[in-house]
Structure formats: structure tokens, C-alpha cells
């Protein structure tokens, strides 16, 4: 062989090796790994394609992230005090956390759901439920602020919530912990037949206002999750229940004895009609209804009394039970409204019910039993199909709008993609670890966006750098646009996201508010210009209406405050530009700072305890002279005669 | 002469566009203002490009000791300019009508144009003088007193025409729709003169 021949052979071998290498890497990752990075890469200055709203679980709040990047954009305070902005600390927002039990500084936020029109996400509001002190909140998607919170009386453990019907007519709240209704002192062991599980229906007005319309006083099972009918099943609501055993102790064993529990199918349109015609009776029930007004920048809490309670047995043809294997958790309805997926969390199969079969069974009075007078339909005659052996511990299902369903399996820690109608399993992907809920933007509506899926995991372990015993929960993003799910990225989430709601960014971002119009500020203590700034004494109360603008307060020197006074600091931000908040804090305040948005007024109380000259300052680096944005309040002895005096630049 | 007169009428009527559209536009760019901040100069006053731009420009300018931007009643120009422009438009239209019905000499068209040019130059001179004053007559207690390389106080005067760097801002100052309409209108009056003149000459020949 001559030199050239050897050379050629060498080149050929090289090509062969290179090809092999390529083949290997292809088969390993399923796709070029660089393309995965590109799929989640949002270039600096560019925007994500989707908003994702993650419930914060025990944080009580919502965190907003962008998809596909997974970048956290904001935390919206909802049920928990939030010193970052002063939510729940400022005089204006304290009423938001008022309940019939008094001021509750914390909540357990579970299931966010975005308002809909004709079954499609419309991006007006997002709702979220609170489990511990049963409540539902409505958050504006223009301001990303909590605008309204309504408490649900006679209930406990509001878990089957806050799911909206397809024209945002109603939102529901369930009762996960059956309780005496009305509450009374009685032996726990006499629970059976005595406890109740009321399901609350809250109507939503065109302006978003919530109203507790009625409560269905259901038998005392634990109503866990719910989903409204969609499309053809619009007008119905489905609730899963467990503990049909009505056990009251060692629940993990005693509530797992029945082979089947129930899905409650509620024809809510029929119940609404019944109530309209004077049905139901008003029973006791005290609840707080808290509304935030964007013009006065102030929330008011109204304590309401009484609720219409409905005995489900008395509404002809409105409430039925469908048997479902083994302590179900998730209850999900596909975009067509035909299939109701029940996830028996201790079952190895997934039961899918047919809405048409349910209707037929009701029509034929095909009842196998009754539970406290509520007809129980037959399992066999309502089932549409069973997804056989998909995994262990099914919890939740969402849809891609292309005829596929995606179900999470907590115990086997995976997401399984399967086909509606044929029930065949198409793909499975591991999650890290022990996935609870998953979310496809729009995936619980008539029109899922079907491009990404996020798995929200309960266990993090080694996914990120260790941060001591407590870890943020992990989420994984999958591309579901192809036949197979493709894991793209992994990112931490705040608190414990029990669920999330996602929406295409363009449905929200154009209408996102940039600042509040100062001229529309109707706060009674707003100083809308520096000349309106005042300090007034009313007995032991001192009201200071102060302005903030880059880079000073007006007034910035105040005298005449005394030890023992209750000083209300009403701060108005005079800026009218995007993203120019000013903060305020003062030494010795037993509350948080407040972050005041342009055009807004917020108030904190300061009760000076010692004589002296005490500084206050702006807490948000607002400008080049932010450090100079400060002032002093002189505090004199309680019996002194120091007159009220306030100045800016000695004028 | 008929078509020349009609063009004269159209040309001088285009001045009326200044009552609707701005004369000049000043746009400021800085890293903190990704979508810009700026103002339109109308015959009768200043207007922010966005609702609160004037207030926000004043907010920025207070650091370097510039006065607040004038309100409509704080400058005589904002009440005089509309009268001058309105008057010139009416005058031009009358001259055009006289050309149409009385066949006055097209030299009147030229005279109107020369007067308009003189007034225009005076207007620009006045505008520039105001900007010099606005950009250099600074509060002695200004927060930031900037000097140029020679130690002289920095001028914050925006350019009359063109683009200029001023500290962290890039200022663009250009005529706006109203000015373009006026310029085109003035060009038309010249066309009217030229056409009328040619016609007169051809009649004489």
C-alpha cells in the first residue's frame, strides 16, 4: 500500500469513528442536548412565552415564573403577611387577612385557577384557595395584587377549590375535613352520620366580585378535589371524596378500608335554579368578606352572617355519587367534557368515566345503592375505560388538547402520557422526586396550549446544591409538543406548589399596569402634591400625610410628636413612571416596611416609646440620591409642649 | 394661473396641520428608559410622548438644576405662534383666492413665501435661544454640577436639529409631522409662484 492509500484508509476510519460517536450520542439523549438548552434559553432582555402561577402551599402566596426559562418573576402575597411590600402589615391591607377568627397572618394556598370565557383562559383574574381557614382569593392580573378574599363558613379544609366554571360563573370550595355543621361540642367518636362536608358555590360578578351563593350540605366524607364540567358537561361539577368510611382516628388505615369511595357529580345549574326558586334554608355561618379598592388603595373587611344551605336530597336529580376505587385524589375533566378521570391514589389502575354514560345511568335510574339518600350510580355502567397498570399512586391529570392525557404518579415518581379513548400508554418519564400535581398551560380548560408540561415535585433531595435540611421543592419542565415527552430543565420553586396555572404571556402582558394614576388616588390621607403634605394631631393620634419623590420626603423634619402617641404615617408616592417604588421605614416601628407604588398611598403605624430624634428613610434604591432620601421625627416627652411643626428645606 | 392659485391655497392651508400635529419632537434615550421618554412641541404648548413624560423629564432635570418645562401660559410663544401661523395660513389662502378670481400677480405668492421664511427663521432663532437658556441657566443649588473638559459648566441644551449625547442620555431632536406639512406647504407655494410666473411669461410672449 502506498502512502496515499494509507492516508485514505486513515481518513475513512476517522469518518467511521466520528459517525459512530454521533450515533451514540443521539441514542443517549434522544435529541441533541444543545437543542434542549436552546429550548429553555430566553436571551437577556427577551420575555418568556408563558406565565406560570405556582401556589406557594404553606407560604400562603403565589409565585410567578416565566416558562420555558423557569425564572421567578414575582411573589404575590395572598394569604400571608409579606414584609417585603408591607402586605398584611400596612393599615390598608391588614383587613385582607381578617377572618371570623380574627386576624390570621398566614394561609395554606393550594390550587390557582385562571378565569375563563367559553372554556378558554381569558387572563382577567387568578383565584386561589386557602385550606386551613377556608377562603378563596381573587388576584387581578392587571396589577398582580390580591383584590378580594372571601371566607367559607361551616367548612374545614378547603382543598377541593378554587376551580372555575367555563364562563367564570362559579368557583367552588369543598370540605376536606368533615365537621359538625353547625359546629357544636360533641364527642368525636359520634362523627358518623353527624359530621357534614358542605360544598360552597361562590358566584363571580362581571367585575370579579365574589358572593357566597349557597352550600350543598353533603354527607360527611372528605371532599378532596374537584373539577367543573367543560364543553358538553358544562353545568356539572365533579368532586372526589375519601373516607367514606367516616373514620375519625388513625385515618391512614381506617379511611382506606372501603374498596371504593365516591365521586360526587353535582348538576350545579339545577341547584342554582332550585335556589332561585326559593329553595334551601338560611342557616348560621359567620364569614369575612374582604375587598381591596384600587382607587382608595384600601381594603375593607365586612363580617357577614348566614348562608343558604341545601340538603342535596331535596334537589331532584342534582346530586349523585359515582363509585371510584381506593381513596381518590385528583378529579379531572378532559377538554371535550366527555371524560372524567378519577385517580384512586391507592389503586393501580386509572378509572375514566363517560359523561354520556353518567347521564344515561341517571336517566335510567340505574342506581346500585344510596348514601344518606344520595343515589349511587353503578361503576360498571358509568366507566368509559381503565388505564391498566399505568404506575403507582396516580394523583392528577391534565391534557394537551391533542387527545392525550398526562397523569402524575406520586409513588412511582413519574408522569405517564396516555391516549383518551384507547387508554393505551404512550410514554412515561421519571420526575425528581415524587410528583404531586402537573400543569400544562391551559391544560384544565377547553383549549390547552399543549407545548410545555411542568411537574411539581414534593421531594427534592439531591437535585440542587444542598441548603441544609430544608429544601425548596423542585419542578421539571417537559416539552410535550412531540410524540414523546422530553425533559428540558429542572428549577426550584418557592414553598410547596400544590398546583399551578399557566397562560400564554401575550394574554396578560400588554394590559399589565405600570403605575397608579395619582389623580385617581382617593385615599383619604393621600397628599397628592408636596403642598398637600400635613401633620395633624387628634388627641394621642398623629396623622402624617407625607409625599415621596426622587429623592426626598416632604416634609422631612417633623417635630411635636410625643412618647405614647400613635403615629399614622400615610405615605404617597408622587412618581408617575414605571417601576419607581419608594419604601419607608422608621426605627422602632413594630411592623414591616412599606413599599409604595407610584401613585399609591400606604400607611404604617409607629408608636414611639422613647424621646429623641429618630430617622426614617427610603428602603428601595430609587435613584442616585437614594441614600439622601431620609428625614427625622423629633419625639418629645409625653407631657411636653413641643408644637407640631413640619418642614422641607426649612420652609 | 388657476392651477397655480389652487396650489397656493393648498400650500398655505397645509400650515393648519400645525394645529393638530406637533412641530418638533425631542426624544431621550437612556438605559433606564428602554422605551424612551420624550416630548412633542406643539404650537400651543408641550406634550409628553407618554402621559407623564413631562413630569418625568422634570424629575430627571431637577438633579442638574434645570427649570421645569414651561406650561402653555408660561411662555408668550405658545399664544403668539398659533396667531402667526393661523394668520399666515389665512393670508396665503386669501392671496390664493385673489389669484384664482382676481388674477393678481404670482409675485404675491413669492412675497408670502419670503415673509413665511423670515418668520420661520425668527421662530427657529427664538426656539434655539430658549433652549440655550433652558439648558444653561441652571439652579446654582443644583444637586449635580457637571463641567466639561475645560472646567466650564456643562450645557444641557438639546440640539435644535440632530442627535446629541447629554450625560447618560442620547437626545434626538427632529421636526415632526406638523413641520413637515408646513415645509411641504411652503414648497407648494413656491411651485405655485413658479407655475404662475411661467404662465404670465408665456402670456406676455
TrEMBL record, chain A:
Highest taxon of the lineage: Bacteria
Compartments reported by the entry: Cell envelope
Keyword Cell cycle: no
Principal location: other
Pfam families for this protein: nos_propeller
Coiled-coil stretches noted in the UniProt entry, renumbered to this chain: none
Record keywords, A-Z: Copper, Metal-binding
Listed InterPro entries: Copper_CuA, Cupredoxin, N2O_reductase_N, Nitrous_oxide_Rdtase_Sec-dep, Nos_propeller, NosZ/Cyto_c_oxidase_sub2, WD40/YVTN_repeat-like_dom_sf
Keyword Metal-binding annotated: yes
SUPFAM superfamilies named among the record's database cross-references: Cupredoxins, Nitrous oxide reductase, N-terminal domain
GO-annotated cellular components: cell envelope
Transmembrane segments: none
Molecular-function GO terms, alphabetical: copper ion binding
PANTHER family cross-referenced by the UniProt entry: CYTOCHROME C OXIDASE SUBUNIT II, NITROUS-OXIDE REDUCTASE
Protein's name according to its UniProt entry: Nitrous oxide reductase apoprotein
Biological source species: Algibacter luteus
TrEMBL record, chain B:
Protein name, entry field: Copper chaperone NosL
Keywords assigned: Membrane, Transmembrane, Transmembrane helix
Transmembrane segments: 84-101, 108-125, 177-196
Superkingdom in the source lineage: Bacteria
Organism in which the protein naturally occurs: Algibacter luteus
Amino acid at each position: 500500500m502506498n502512502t496515499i492509500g494509507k492516508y485514505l484508509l486513515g481518513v475513512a476510519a476517522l469518518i467511521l469513528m466520528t459517525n459512530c460517536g454521533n450515533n451514540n450520542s443521539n441514542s443517549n439523549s434522544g435529541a441533541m442536548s444543545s437543542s434542549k438548552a436552546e429550548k429553555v434559553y430566553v436571551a437577556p432582555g427577551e420575555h418568556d412565552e408563558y406565565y406560570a402561577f405556582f401556589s406557594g402551599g404553606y407560604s400562603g402566596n403565589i409565585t410567578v415564573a416565566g416558562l420555558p426559562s423557569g425564572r421567578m418573576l414575582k411573589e404575590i402575597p395572598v394569604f400571608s403577611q409579606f414584609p417585603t411590600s408591607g402586605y398584611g402589615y400596612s393599615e390598608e391591607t391588614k383587613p385582607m387577612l381578617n377572618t371570623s377568627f380574627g386576624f390570621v397572618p398566614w394561609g395554606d394556598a393550594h390550587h390557582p385557577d385562571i378565569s375563563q370565557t367559553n372554556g378558554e383562559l381569558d387572563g382577567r383574574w387568578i383565584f386561589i384557595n386557602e385550606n386551613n381557614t377556608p377562603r378563596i382569593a381573587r388576584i387581578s392580573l392587571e396589577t398582580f395584587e390580591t383584590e378580594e378574599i372571601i371566607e367559607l363558613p361551616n367548612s374545614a379544609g378547603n382543598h377541593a377549590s378554587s376551580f372555575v366554571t367555563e364562563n367564570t360563573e362559579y368557583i367552588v370550595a369543598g370540605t376536606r375535613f368533615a365537621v359538625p355543621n353547625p359546629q357544636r361540642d360533641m364527642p368525636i367518636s359520634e362523627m358518623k352520620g353527624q359530621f357534614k362536608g358542605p360544598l360552597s358555590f361562590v358566584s363571580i360578578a362581571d367585575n370579579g366580585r365574589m358572593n357566597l351563593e349557597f352550600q350543598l350540605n353533603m354527607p360527611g366524607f372528605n371532599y378532596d378535589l374537584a373539577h367543573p364540567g367543560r364543553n358538553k358537561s358544562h353545568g356539572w361539577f365533579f368532586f372526589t371524596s375519601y373516607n367514606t368510611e367516616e373514620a375519625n382516628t388513625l385515618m391512614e388505615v381506617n379511611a382506606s378500608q372501603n374498596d371504593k369511595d365516591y365521586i360526587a357529580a353535582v348538576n350545579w345549574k339545577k341547584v342554582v335554579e332550585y335556589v332561585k326558586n326559593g329553595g334551601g334554608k338560611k342557616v348560621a355561618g359567620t364569614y369575612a368578606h374582604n375587598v381591596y379598592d384600587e382607587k382608595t388603595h384600601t381594603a375593607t373587611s365586612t363580617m357577614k352572617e348566614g348562608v343558604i344551605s341545601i340538603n342535596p336530597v331535596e334537589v331532584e336529580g342534582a346530586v349523585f355519587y359515582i363509585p371510584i376505587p381506593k381513596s381518590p385524589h385528583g378529579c379531572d375533566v378532559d377538554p371535550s367534557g366527555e371524560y372524567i378521570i378519577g385517580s384512586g391514589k391507592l389503586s393501580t389502575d386509572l378509572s375514566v368515566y363517560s359523561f354520556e354514560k353518567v347521564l344515561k345511568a341517571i336517566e335510567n335510574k340505574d342506581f346500585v345503592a344510596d348514601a344518606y339518600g344520595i343515589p349511587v350510580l353503578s361503576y360498571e355502567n358509568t366507566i368509559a375505560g381503565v388505564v391498566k397498570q399505568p404506575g403507582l399512586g396516580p394523583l392528577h391529570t391534565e391534557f394537551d388538547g391533542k387527545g392525550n392525557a398526562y397523569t402524575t404518579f406520586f409513588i412511582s415518581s413519574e408522569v405517564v402520557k396516555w391516549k383518551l379513548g384507547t387508554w393505551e400508554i404512550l410514554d412515561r418519564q421519571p420526575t425528581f422526586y415524587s410528583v404531586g400535581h402537573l400543569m400544562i398551560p391551559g391544560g384544565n380548560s377547553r383549549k390547552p396550549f399543549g407545548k410545555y408540561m411542568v411537574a411539581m415535585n414534593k421531594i427534592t433531595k439531591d437535585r440542587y446544591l444542598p441548603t441544609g435540611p430544608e429544601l425548596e421543592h423542585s419542578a421539571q419542565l417537559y416539552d410535550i409538543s412531540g410524540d414523546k415527552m422530553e425533559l428540558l430543565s429542572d428549577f426550584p420553586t418557592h414553598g410547596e406548589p400544590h398546583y399551578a396555572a399557566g397562560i400564554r404571556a401575550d394574554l396578560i402582558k400588554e394590559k399589565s399596569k405600570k403605575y397608579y394614576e395619582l389623580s385617581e388616588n382617593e385615599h383619604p390621607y393621600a397628599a397628592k402634591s408636596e403642598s398637600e403634605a400635613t401633620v395633624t394631631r387628634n388627641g394621642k393620634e398623629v396623622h402624617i400625610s407625607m409625599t415621596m419623590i426622587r429623592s426626598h420626603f416632604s416634609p422631612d423634619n417633623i417635630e411635636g410628636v410625643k412618647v405614647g402617641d400613635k403615629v399614622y404615617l400615610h405615605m404617597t408616592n408622587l412618581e408617575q413612571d414605571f417601576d419607581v417604588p419608594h419604601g419607608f421605614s422608621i426605627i422602632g416601628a413594630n411592623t414591616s416596611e412599606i413599599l409604595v407604588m407610584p401613585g399609591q398611598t400606604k400607611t404604617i403605624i409607629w408608636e414611639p416609646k422613647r424621646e429623641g430624634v429618630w430617622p426614617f428613610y427610603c428602603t428601595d434604591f430609587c435613584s442616585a440620591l437614594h441614600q439622601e432620601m431620609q428625614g427625622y421625627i423629633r419625639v418629645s416627652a409625653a407631657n411636653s409642649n413641643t408644637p407640631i411643626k413640619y418642614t422641607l428645606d426649612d420652609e | 394661473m388657476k392651477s397655480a392659485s389652487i396650489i397656493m391655497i393648498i400650500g398655505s392651508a397645509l400650515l393648519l396641520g400645525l394645529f393638530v400635529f406637533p412641530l418638533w419632537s425631542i426624544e431621550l434615550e437612556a438605559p433606564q428608559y428602554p422605551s424612551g421618554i420624550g416630548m412633542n412641541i406643539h404650537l400651543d404648548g408641550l406634550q409628553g410622548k407618554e402621559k407623564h413624560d413631562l413630569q418625568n423629564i422634570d424629575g430627571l432635570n431637577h438633579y442638574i438644576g434645570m427649570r421645569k418645562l414651561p406650561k402653555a401660559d408660561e411662555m408668550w410663544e405658545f399664544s403668539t405662534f398659533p396667531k402667526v401661523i393661523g394668520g399666515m395660513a389665512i393670508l396665503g389662502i386669501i392671496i390664493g383666492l385673489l389669484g384664482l378670481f382676481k388674477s393678481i400677480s404670482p409675485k404675491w405668492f413669492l412675497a408670502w413665501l419670503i415673509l413665511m421664511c423670515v418668520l420661520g427663521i425668527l421662530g427657529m432663532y427664538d426656539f434655539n435661544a430658549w433652549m440655550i437658556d433652558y439648558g444653561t441657566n441652571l439652579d446654582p443649588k443644583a444637586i449635580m454640577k457637571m463641567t466639561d473638559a475645560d472646567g466650564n459648566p456643562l450645557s444641557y441644551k438639546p440640539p435644535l436639529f440632530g442627535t446629541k449625547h447629554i450625560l447618560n442620555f442620547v437626545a434626538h431632536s427632529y421636526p415632526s409631522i406638523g413641520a413637515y406639512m408646513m415645509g411641504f406647504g411652503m414648497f407648494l407655494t413656491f411651485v405655485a409662484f413658479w407655475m404662475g410666473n411661467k404662465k404670465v411669461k408665456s402670456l406676455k410672449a
